[in-house]
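Hey, I'm writing a tutorial for new members on how sequence and structure tokens pair up, and I'd like a real worked example in the thread rather than a made-up one. If someone can provide the structure for the chain below, I'll link this post from the tutorial.
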Amino acid sequence: MSSRQEEKAARRAEREAQEAAAAKAAARAKRTQMALGSVLVLAIIGGSAAALLSSGGSGKGTGTVQSTTAKVAVPPVKETDLAKAASGAGCTVSNPPIQGSTHVTGTVNYKTNPPSSGDHNQVPAQDGIYAPGNEPAKENYVHALEHGRIEVEYRPGTPVRTISQIETVASEPLNGSDAYHVLVFQNNTQMPFQVAAVGWGHILGCRTMSPKVFDALRAFRKQYTDKGPELIP
């Protein structure tokens, strides 16, 4: 009798152990599902929702980063000093005063063109290359500048090959990573430049495009990447 009771107790203990293990597995699966869901939500917020969440933003595109860009031939590096590269390319480097950094929900009228600082939407535009017409709203990409990003913008109507060259140069390795902390997109503020690079409080503006502009872009990116007041990895 005692033996049967011990056998029943052993079976009950085994069953309870199996149920406990199953419960733990289910809990782990649920946590994983929730984590994946959170990643998806963050990806959506950081990508297309960057434009959607901006109230009255100037961009008409989706603010969605395109997946890839074709690498094309670009001129090799000849000048690494920013001042010399900018001068040789006929570009200007300016350092406008910081115009604020408050989170807002509406449209902001920036005092520089392209915008280089100021109040902005709470959702930063994500790193990457945006297809023409899908650029993020200015209120979102100004927030990205605050995080130390560099933005390379080109005027609407820029030839496709030139856009590909700009994307290729902007994607060159920096700090051990390709396309490190950079955004490339078509300008949506009617800037006076053919191409411009922007950091928080800094602008490289080139009114005409030439092979020498690429060195100016490289030097600007190297000098001002990760120099925003809020460095976000």
